[in-house]
């Protein structure tokens, strides 16, 4: 199963954190920064699989059983300014997870039309909604792009980012005092 | 005043660059206020902002009650925010969770699909066993919902329910199965079920065998690659249970491999064939050979494909799985696998390295090691400063930064994946693992693949230079060394290896000694240990031991001694320093013990100069904080002072015309401390075979009068302190020019000045016994010595006399005697236990036996002879011992892993006890577990009772809560806490008990390992009684006898239990 889904940008700023187990906020932050440290050190030619971060590293090396409840795989994909991370157990297929991230990003792209980091910052609720259509409780429920998009739209209108947001801080005009 | 909405918060954050923290604090304060207003819109907005800030590590658990309020709003937009907040912020200890239960039930039963979906996605994050029990019925009805989206989410939610409350599956599984078998069901629902079944599958594969036909159908129907992958994964756990599946699966799998355009599916097919044991199952048949060839060729293709490191990574993973069963097939592709150890990607390299270790042989070993070495050499180390900046593993939260690169952020993320440009230096842990692998490869099967040990020693020296700067060991925490075990650094491992080669391979000892010298020499230190930290220094302790033990083989003894006693050595870590201290007298001895050359004044000057340098080095160390170092320094310091005395008073050849004997202390006494039996490697299991002596009674006190004696000694001490203070001051202020010499006890050195023959007659010095007296004389001399010693220590409470009866009375001067004997002890070198051992058995015999024993097991490899481990006879027992040891280790490890559950882990072990095969189709598999079934039943009954009770309590609590809410909405009821705690405690108690048991087992196992290694003589062969283990240097004092015996006793009881 999938234990956690994380999205953060090139500076390690989180854009989405979803843990499928209840975890202390401080621990979440630590895990996030550990993974960011790992992922930021990867040269571009590397593969998309990370070694386990120290927090998740098995306490002993005897965990050699084929299957285990413990997370054993950290998969990541890097798109423009964002890293998408999946932490999963051995029941997931590594290559299929990469495709799953692709579906996720494509779904976001459909919803936002040329999605960029700013969209996700302002609409992080939508980010959660899309994920909820694909993964429930750590188990993948949908991998079809159409159905995911359809499911999110059924929940209500997806907001586009505020107009002119690119000049943030200067153009508070119409939004100010709302 | 206007409230901010979420956009304004984010925008504000982005505008307040540099002052984010203040801005956030201000925003949090606002949220706190807003969340308490009665306006639900404001509450929801505030919550959304809090959720956003929570992502950056700002705790919002205090708002859990408000989360609940927003969740219960009638508006979907509010609900959406509320449920999201619940998912993101509720923790196991969130108190309001129980209040949420009814709300969840209500929303689950509602008509709005979106709301139901919200509840379904939330439940997995917040569910507890009690809640699961009460939600179960509501969820089951949702399985029949008209919308497939709801159905599939319900199925997954039920799975998560089952993880905390396995009983869920009893009513749920038949329904889920029905849906799975329904061919008209929506494919996405079927896919969701397959996902769930795949998760459940590996826990109880036998329960899912009846589903095989349907799954097979789904697999061959195709269409959904994700589902196909999951089915294949599931089948790979089923095939070992049902061999007939293999035949059935083979055709579709091969056809998928041949035809599918999806690489992930292809890989999982290959992987499934490997993992499911299908390759073994069909081995030998035409089909089987074809499949094996097909799989391996596909994997090979994945390895060589250009530009996709992911494929290389997973292909290596798959290869790793077949090495144990199909080593030959993997070996055929060693060429491409070897290429991967030079892959630019470290993940790939690590995988390849794992494989390569299993592939080495005598022919390719050197080549592989050279490649790895080149990698280490060329990569350059990560500078320490870079590490510091990159180390973000500190648990302070990430502050949201105002982003300044808006252009970047508007970059569409659909663009091709991009990454930073420059390649970082090798990380330290990779470096460490490469070095470990090299050592593992080279030392495999007692150097079975090693052809050239000279080369190997060169490699080891090279590896020292490549050691990453260590953080763990090599610190000055001498106090910790005794308590918590230091983590051995990789440099220690290199040192051990060097030592191992030096001991086992006689032929290269000179090279090993030279290598040790090159490591030790002070002027080469810069070159040898370029790492900023104390990276490679762990090797020094082994190097010092080699230099000491094989000092005669050192190319330049003088240089080594000079480096050993160099002032900078005193700052080494205590462990290394202790090893240095042991090596110093050994090296010193080789330089000064020459008996044949005459004692010229030049030689005397030389010797005294050397001694002076050693003394100069040792003196400050007598105050070293590490006890081990201190003890050794004190011992050798006094020995050196003696030697100095002897050297200066011995007449030189100039004075006596012609040949002058060098001082006997230098030529005979001190060398005899360090020469003895050859050190041989002893098998780890040999210790366990040493039979316990029949007459060993550990319950009998060694000295029944010990308590009184100690009491008296204490009394004496106080007497002594008051009455004989001057004696104390005299004792401490005695000039260090010579040892304190009392009237009636001449120093041994004096006696050595006399001609040997006369010395023998008057004094008890036995240095010449071996050489000059016949056995009869020797026996007489021994008896005489004993008598003398007994006389001397008559009043010494710490001297345990075998002949003295328990009622030994001590005189008021006991402590005085202790002091005196502490002073005079080294005068009687004979009293040092090492010497005593030699008195009792003829040394010639021992030597021979020691040399002969390993011969039988020596492995001849070209011209190198590698001494195998020495052990006692009885191979079968050895096996048994090994397995018990392993078993113990495994159980300990299991206990550890159980205690330290991985962070994100969702424990599914509860499922393994629950059988799903209650229905007729799968009844057969459940039969044989009837006995355990009863147990399960009983536990279930208990659990049900428990949950019922908890439910009751909770209902009551809820009512009380409601009553309280009317008065004080924010109040957190105290009574509820108590109830919950109770429940938890029961569980924790159980868990703890188990852990403690396991832990004890582990401790005993450890203790067993720690036990000193010994070996006992066997029938027929005259073997030595005590073989000192390499590294465990001789010269042990007798004092720890007490503790050692205690340990033994503990072990005996353990074995009885086992």
Automatic annotation (TrEMBL), chain A:
Under the heading Gene3D superfamilies, the entry gives: 3.30.450.60
Q: Where does the UniProt entry say this protein principally localizes?
A: membrane
Q: Write down the Pfam families for this protein, in alphabetical order.
A: Clat_adaptor_s
Q: Which family does it belong to?
A: Belongs to the adaptor complexes small subunit family.
On the tree of life, the source organism's domain of life is Eukaryota
Species this protein is from: Rachicladosporium monterosium
User: Which keywords label this protein?
Assistant: Membrane, Protein transport, Transport
List, alphabetically, the SUPFAM superfamilies matched.
SNARE-like
Q: What protein name applies here?
A: AP complex subunit sigma
Domain AP complex mu/sigma subunit intervals:
1-157
Where in or outside the cell it occurs: the entry states: Endomembrane system
Automatic annotation (TrEMBL), chain B:
A Pfam family that the UniProt record links to this protein: Adaptin_N
Q: Which Gene3D superfamilies match?
A: Leucine-rich Repeat Variant
Domain called Clathrin/coatomer adaptor adaptin-like N-terminal: residue spans:
20-643
Q: Which residues lie within the region annotated Disordered?
A: 383-404, 738-814, 842-898, 914-946, 964-1058
Q: Where is the composition biased (Basic and acidic residues)?
A: 769-806, 934-946
Q: Which domain of life is it from?
A: Eukaryota
Write out the biased-composition intervals (Low complexity).
Answer: 914-926
Q: Where is the composition biased (Polar residues)?
A: 759-768
Q: Where is the composition biased (Acidic residues)?
A: 867-878, 992-1001
Q: Which UniProt keywords apply?
A: Golgi apparatus, Membrane, Protein transport, Repeat, Transport
Compartment list:
Endomembrane system; Golgi apparatus
Membership in a protein family: Belongs to the adaptor complexes large subunit family.
Provide the assembly information. Answer: Adaptor protein complex 3 (AP-3) is a heterotetramer.
Q: What role does this protein play?
A: Part of the AP-3 complex, an adaptor-related complex which is not clathrin-associated. The complex is associated with the Golgi region as well as more peripheral structures. It facilitates the budding of vesicles from the Golgi membrane.
- Annotated protein name in UniProt: AP-3 complex subunit delta
Q: Which organism is it from?
A: Rachicladosporium monterosium
The upper taxonomy is: Eukaryota, Fungi, Dikarya, Ascomycota, Pezizomycotina
Q: Could you tell me the gene encoding this protein?
A: APL5
